[in-house]
TrEMBL record:
Residues 208-217 have a biased composition (Low complexity). This is Extracellular signal-regulated kinase 2. It comes from the Eukaryota. Gene3D superfamilies: Transferase(Phosphotransferase) domain 1. Residues 1-151 form the Protein kinase domain. The keyword Transferase applies. GO terms for molecular function: ATP binding; protein serine/threonine kinase activity. PROSITE patterns: PROTEIN_KINASE_DOM. Keywords: ATP-binding, Kinase, Membrane, Nucleotide-binding, Serine/threonine-protein kinase, Transferase, Transmembrane, Transmembrane helix. PANTHER family: MITOGEN-ACTIVATED PROTEIN KINASE. The chain crosses the membrane at residues 12-31.
């Protein structure tokens, strides 16, 4: 009985994990850009703006706008909105499979966004159109999107920073490692960052303390000059009076 109960719990746990995995995978597919579906290996930040467009469309309609059942079905649903891409758009995908995959899909008339989202404002539809461009080079950038009339009221340049360097992943994604190796490398990376933060914190404290000492010394020096005692004559010493000017004759 006990063994059976343990096995049932293990099977239940595996079922839950598998269900969550499938659900996450399906949700991720809903927001994939065309270049990822077509096998591009050199995609850009445009994939994120495509996902923004998918999320915006879902907020406007209350349901996923590209609920594909497979990669090809997903592409078919996308082209029902964007229309069939031209040669320039296909070239921008940077995938050797793009042309062949797209040629195998049936022709379809693109649906206007205003028909898909009849209650959406003109500004919302315009931002949606700019995000859901099949060609990644024609999509709106993050900076441009933040200044779009639909969301400009939330735009605050002081809180929106640009990364001035290329972020490189410390673990090469092309090299497949074991779970334990990934765990160890990730743990070591966290420890490394923690040490760097502590060193940086100590340097900042030392710099602040040094600046405080210099400021205090400067203040004391200036205050000493301001209240320097005046020279007083010695006791018993009389200051000679200035001679009186004779009056006029």
């Amino acid at each position: 009985m006990l063994v059976g109960a343990v096995m049932d719990q293990q099977e239940l746990l595996l079922a839950v994990v598998f269900t969550v995995f499938v659900a996450v995978l399906y949700v991720f597919v809903l927001y994939r850009a065309p270049e990822i579906l077509l096998g591009s290996t050199s995609y850009t930040k445009g994939v994120d703006l495509w996902s923004v467009g998918c999320i915006l469309g879902e907020l406007l309609s209350g349901k996923p706008i590209f609920p594909g059942t497979s990669t090809m079905n997903q592409l078919d649903r996308i082209m029902e909105v964007t229309g069939r891409p031209n040669s320039e758009d296909v070239e921008a995908i940077r995938s050797p499979f793009a042309a062949t995959m797209l040629e195998s899909l049936p022709m379809s008339r693109p649906r206007p966004l205003s028909e898909m989202f009849p209650s959406a404002s003109v500004e919302a539809l315009d931002l949606l159109r700019l995000c859901l461009q099949f060609n990644p080079n024609k999509r709106v950038s993050a900076k441009e999107a933040l200044r779009h009339p639909y969301v400009v009221q939330f735009h605050n340049p002081e809180d929106e920073f640009d990364c001035d360097r290329t972020i490189r992943i410390p673990i090469d994604d092309n090299t497949k490692l074991t779970v334990q190796d990934y765990r160890d490398r990730l743990y070591n990376e966290v420890l490394k960052k923690k040490k760097e933060q502590r060193r940086s914190h100590r340097r900042n404290l030392e710099m602040q303390q040094s600046q405080q000492v210099v400021s205090q010394q400067t203040y004391q020096a200036s205050a000493g000059q301001a209240v320097a005692p005046q020279h007083q004559p010695a006791a018993g010493h009389q200051v000679a009076a200035s001679p009186q000017q004779p009056g006029r004759m």
